[in-house]
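INFO batch 0412 | record 1 of 1 | parsing
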Amino acid sequence: MSTSARRYAGPVSRTIAYALDALIVSVFFTAGAALAGLITSVMGTEIHDVTRSAASAVLLVLPAMLAAYSMLFWALAGRTPGMALLGLRVVAVRSPDLSWLSAAVRAVVLAYFPLGAVWVLVDRRHQAVHDKLARTAVIRVG
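INFO prediction complete | emitting tokens
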């Protein structure tokens, strides 16, 4: 698809897709933490305290899980489940295929600097900071 024929996804659809993906990752994280807590509560209080401490590391772990989830889906399918529901796809700006490196850069920057997504409001192609750094864009398909 030529650059002029692309229909760039707007901030609302991108935000909804991100929220859906964040919800999916949060549900899996919460289920995993609950299971770990259940297992360690049976093993004793010392291990249970370790699990409680690990669960409080959510500010580092949850974004890492979101980054891994996003990177895998973007590199393999060009879209996450949330994006698929809304008919969106991540594409490379200057090449035919999205590389693993572009997917990784995009995922890490989005996960740890989500405020950079606000840039879609002022960019003519609705690119956020993570799109600019990874040289990607989000388009509507179908």
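INFO post-check: The chain has a mean pLDDT of 88.
INFO record closed
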